[in-house]
Design brief:
Helices cover 48% and strands 10% of the residues. It has helices spanning 22-25, 41-44, 47-57, 74-86, 98-112, 193-211, 218-240, 245-262, 271-283, 287-302, 307-317, 326-343, 360-370, 372-375, 384-394; strands spanning 11-14, 32-38, 61-68, 91-96, 141-145, 158-159, 170-171, 180-183. Strand 4, helix 5 (98-112) and strand 5 form a beta-alpha-beta unit. The chain is globular. It starts with 10 loop residues before the first strand and ends with a helix.
């Protein structure tokens, strides 16, 4: 067995009604909080008012920034950090999906550095090494997820769009793991079908990529396998009936444990995510769908790089047939994944997301500038020409 290490520092509170824990947990982090929430939706659904009231009932002073946009932008993080510092806040609460949670992490981090431009700390910036001497630990973070798709509540990672270069790099360090995370499936019952679909397929990619990463461990395999099983058994149900609280709970759990696999469990995603992020930076497309657009060419290219791993992917997706050899199972994994995408209404091309062939060079540049560490977690080494070809096949 390989040598590996792991840590799961975030305290996660999971289950229906756990939003009430805000009153108990928040006072442990400070007296004044910046509450970051998804633009418009959290207020419209009543979640913002509910969270604000719980914080105030706990005796906290609350500053609200409910202008978090999908795929949060560097300029927004800078502005929100200025608000955090000017109001002398003690910690952040991120309420919403991955964008709100990533914003809370980024603001807590940038505020700890005294403010400035978050772009300096992203890939390509002059302070991009978040483990370097002089980098201060982030202010405390409490995350309340209202979607099941990013796993951000269980990872140290945050993804901010660089609006100057149209890139979408991910970064983070141990200090941007949330101190507390609340996963309350009742907050997910009103998610629109499109959001449920995009988020749900992202859970599957997190789990599958964690399993086929070259840094996978027995620890991360446990979470990846279970997350795949839960998605395959429950995503169809929540797409048909979003009010099914048990199925929502199962997908929410899959999301959290897939996040543990790629984050605190120290496995990672692979070339699918590396390439998908660059699509998001160029087009602002929904994150999960960018992965759906590039995954099939990637799987066809790499499925023979580790026969046993890719054969197991076919089994976990439910497409193994009696008498098939390991090699045949591995070679079938792209077809198996394609059928899964069709089943969940996620089969899509880059052209569907607005990508033009002339954008491929810039997207490839972005992969090797901002996501090369993720690309290098793939079981097959991929060079620039490989990535360009995969993008062309995904158009």
């Amino acid at each position: 067995m390989k040598v590996f290490d792991f840590a799961v520092p975030t305290n996660v509170f999971f289950g229906c009604g756990e939003i009430k824990r805000v009153k108990e947990l928040a006072p442990k982090l400070g007296k004044k909080v910046l509450l970051l929430a998804a633009k418009d939706t959290m207020r419209a659904l009543g979640f913002l008012e509910k969270t604000e009231n719980l914080l105030k009932e706990a005796g906290l002073e609350v500053v609200i920034s409910d202008d978090v946009s999908p795929n949060p932008r560097d300029k927004d993080i800078n502005k929100q950090t200025e608000l955090f510092l000017s109001e002398k806040c003690d910690f952040t609460v991120g309420l919403g999906g991955g964008s709100a949670m990533d914003s809370a992490k980024a603001v807590s981090f940038l505020a700890a550095q005294g403010g400035g431009n978050i772009r300096d700390y992203l890939a390509g910036g002059d302070k991009a090494d978040l483990a370097a001497p002089g980098i201060k630990d982030a202010f405390p973070i409490l995350l309340i997820t209202t979607t099941a798709g990013t796993g951000a509540e269980a990872t140290p990672w945050w993804v901010i769009t660089n609006t100057e270069d149209h890139e979408k790099p991910g970064t983070g360090n141990d200090s941007t793991c949330a101190d507390y995370a609340i996963v309350d499936p009742e907050l997910m019952l009103t998610l629109p079908q499109g959001v449920t679909r995009s988020c749900g397929i992202d859970v599957l990619f997190h789990a599958m990529e964690a399993f086929i990463a070259n840094i996978a461990t027995p620890f991360t395999d446990l979470f990846a396998r279970e997350a795949i099983r839960l998605v395959m058994e429950n995503l169809g149900t929540v797409l048909e009936d979003g009010s099914n609280v048990e199925a929502r709970s199962q997908i929410a759990w899959a999301n959290t444990i897939a996040g543990i696999a790629i984050g605190e469990g120290k496995s990672g995603t692979v070339g699918i995510h590396a390439m998908g992020h660059s699509i998001g930076g160029q087009t602002d497309a929904p994150h999960g769908m960018t992965m759906a657009a590039v995954c099939l060419p990637f799987m066809r290219k790499t499925c023979k790089s580790d026969i046993s791993r890719y054969a197991e992917v076919t089994r976990m997706l439910g497409f193994a047939e009696p008498g098939m050899t390991e090699e045949q199972l591995a070679e079938k994994s792209p077809e198996a994944l394609e059928k899964v995408l069709e089943r969940f209404g996620c089969k899509i091309t880059m052209s569907d997301l607005g990508v033009k062939e002339e954008m491929i060079e810039a997207m490839t540049d972005s992969v090797f500038k901002t996501m090369v560490n993720v690309l290098n977690c793939s079981l097959m080494e991929l060079n620039r020409e490989d990535v360009i070809q995969l993008y062309k096949e995904a158009l």
